[in-house]
Amino acid sequence: MERSGPSEVTGSDTSGPDPQLAVTMGFTGFGKKARTFDLEAMFEQTRRTAVERSRKTLEAREKEEEMNREKELRRQNEDIEPTSSGLNVIRDCSKSSSRDMSSSESEESSDSSDDELIGPPLPPAMVEKPFNFMEDILGPLPPPLNEEEEEAEEEEEEEEEEENPIHKIPDSHEITLKHGTKTVSALGLDPSGARLVTGGYDYDVKFWDFAGMDASFKAFRSLQPCECHQIKSLQYSNTGDMILVVSGSSQAKVIDRDGFEVMECIKGDQYIVDMANTKGHTAMLHTGSWHPKIKGEFMTCSNDATVRTWEVENPKKQKSVFKPRTMQGKKVIPTTCTYSRDGNLIAAACQNGSIQIWDRNLTVHPKFHYKQAHDPGTDTSCVTFSYDGNVLASRGGDDSLKLWDIRQFNKPLFSASGLPTMFPMTDCCFSPDDKLIVTGTSVQRGCGSGKLVFFERRTFQRVYEIDITDASVVRCLWHPKLNQIMVGTGNGLAKVYYDPNKSQRGAKLCVVKTQRKAKQAETLTQDYIITPHALPMFREPRQRSTRKQLEKDRLDPLKSHKPEPPVAGPGRGGRVGTHGGTLSSYIVKNIALDKTDDSNPREAILRHAKAAEDNPYWVSPAYSKTQPKTMFAQVESDDEEAKNEPEWKKRKI
Q: CA angle 410-416-421, nearest 5°?
């Protein structure tokens, strides 16, 4: 682009190169004609570049705004049929292709060179109006859904989820708490869901704090509140500050959250015929329950054929006594009892298969009495009320689970069989939404696995089950606030089932914590004595690191010397054998030793006579000069002594 004009700038003279000067300077390119620059063309090119850049900036902004609009449309059309999503993809492709074509055209137009386009020119229709695949082929998009239609669809989805209660079972994750080796026969969880308490056939009660536990899942406290009695029931009060402990003894106990005893029920007089006249139970307890509304009131049932209510403030006598009776008026033993949700009713299941329900304030006659709820002679292990208070579930010893309506207590609503049980405390519970009923099954050792079975309350169909472990499932508890299921098994385990999305707190708090490392015992290190004013030669070197000092002490043969084990049997190596450290033990050990010598003393002395005669040492050398030949005195016999006696002695005799 070389032009001549008034604004032309030249770099040298237009005359040709001087050959003499080229030889002198040493190169031949000297004196060539300089390039010429057209300033107007340069300014025009700069203006075009600026216009092109501003146009590209505007296109980028329009493109970004269009993408934002598409995102909004996608949000609004999330529930459209899959074909609409395919249309959106095609539309995006067509728009991206049109943008690519427009950008390529802009790049070609921005090129300063007048290169010709490759290929045939575009038809005038496409040049005037770009081709749109969506509008020309598939037609316009359907209008977005109204807000009312979206809400209706969401309600339908929620109804579908509500109709299927299986999706609400929190069983995706589990943790295992090791209680012991024997059956976990009692479970209790406080109302807030912070602490779990377990009891078993090993007489132990263990406390588990979900917020304080780490991944090692260890109990923070273990105790035996009832000495050598099996724990049968544990339950937190409605305030969560006390725990009711029911064991195999005749006296129930109440302990606080930390395991300290608050009260112990008094034992009754077993020689009184009328159990209403005694102050407490006289036989083994079965179970107990707190009042859901009144603080400090609880209930127990026993083998003395009574159900008694108590107050924590008055442990010396029960508050009231309920005496279950058969239809003929005979005594019958209650095996389990519970309060209704409002606390106005007391229900008890008896050994004759009956279920009896009393008004809490009327102890004489039961309000409801169904005499053959379960098979006679079997121990009904659990009765529990639903959260709405209208339905009662009973877990029978005849391997059945039945549902009763309190308003029409003349026959069971539903009944399910084939649920084996071998423990007198196998229980059942309702889900927090009252739509499911849960119970456990028992198995013989090595004959399968215990299961947690779920029944739908409306139809009583067996909708779901969970294989727990290779032992019986004894206890189950579904906490309404945590939405977690606690299970006690026959092999000493307590399992907690939860779902990270559906459950709250509880096991989720301790799973995320890493297991703490055990600190190394610092028994080999000695205390450092600081003496700032002592001479340098008397100062002890300052310990920089405890770990390094432990390593040095481990290498020291004196500090790391293992003590000698106690001597077993007779002593050896200068050490006395183990016989006890007291004088009496030493005497008892040596008193039985027989140290008597049965040999003849004369023979024992005479065996040294020859050696003494051959080598005299003590007496003979003293008489070697005065009496070289030993002379022994003659011993007279008794007869000779009698002859030599004087006459006066003989006369006296």
A: 110
